[in-house]
Design goal:
- The chain has helices at residues 39-48, 104-111, 120-123, 149-158, 164-171; strands at 2-8, 16-22, 25-31, 53-54, 60-66, 68-70, 76-82, 85-90, 96-98, 100-101, 125-126.
- The protein has 5 helices and 11 strands; from the N terminus they run βββαβββββββααβαα.
- The chain starts with a strand and ends in a 6-residue tail after the last helix.
- The radius of gyration is 19 Å and the shape is globular.
- It has a 5-stranded antiparallel sheet, with helices on one face. The chain has a 4-stranded antiparallel sheet with strand order 6-7-8-9, with no helix packed on it. It has a two-stranded antiparallel sheet with strand order 10-11.
- The protein is an alpha+beta fold.
- Helix 1 (39-48) crosses helix 2.
Length: 177
């Protein structure tokens, strides 16, 4: 098998997916080398319903084959899915289109607990949103009169909010000049 390409499921590049080609078959190896406890990969495997294996150094990894499809224009495309969520389209010419990612807050929760309880829809998040709901501001807090960042994040998690726009709408926050 030869290395075909690499993609990352998080912004910090801690969750690495190596793509390996053998003939016309494409395989993946998912690793989290920067997280020594193994919690992150164990929890991700549990969310996705995938088995964990070990590499030659005894580190946990997830391995699998990526099925190949033919699109409406008769082009081959490999579609990587985790937990029934399309994570990437991979084309034979080497082009990789990531379609979902794991937000930093979900990654942090997975790495710091042995019993991660968020479901797949709160763990693997589509990487695009409608333009009209894109939040175009620097949402942050100042001094003791406002919410601390930790409290703002906790409120968002409690109300199952995924994006700052939803914080404003769901929490009923008003923006003033």
């Amino acid at each position: 098998m030869k290395l075909f390409g690499t993609l990352y499921l998080d912004k910090e590049k801690d969750i690495i997916v190596s793509l390996m080609m053998e003939g016309e078959r494409l395989f993946y190896v998912l690793r989290t080398p920067n997280h020594g406890t193994g919690n992150l990969i164990s929890n991700l495997a549990a969310v996705c319903g995938l088995p964990v294996s070990f590499d030659e150094n005894g580190l946990k990894e997830i391995r699998g084959e990526i099925p190949c499809y033919v699109d409406g224009e008769n082009r081959r495309v490999y579609i990587l899915r985790l937990a029934d969520t399309k994570v990437a389209n991979i084309y034979p010419d080497g082009q990789i289109e990531r379609r979902a990612a794991i937000p930093a807050i979900a990654k942090t929760l997975m790495s710091q607990t042995k019993e991660y309880e968020l479901d797949k829809h709160k763990t693997l998040v589509k990487t695009y949103i409608r333009e009209e709901v894109k939040f175009r501001s620097d949402l942050h807090t100042h001094r003791s009169g406002n919410l601390s960042p930790d409290l703002l994040i906790a409120l968002g998690i409690h109300h199952q909010l995924r994006y700052p726009y939803y914080y404003i709408k769901k929490l009923g926050l008003r923006l003033t000049e």
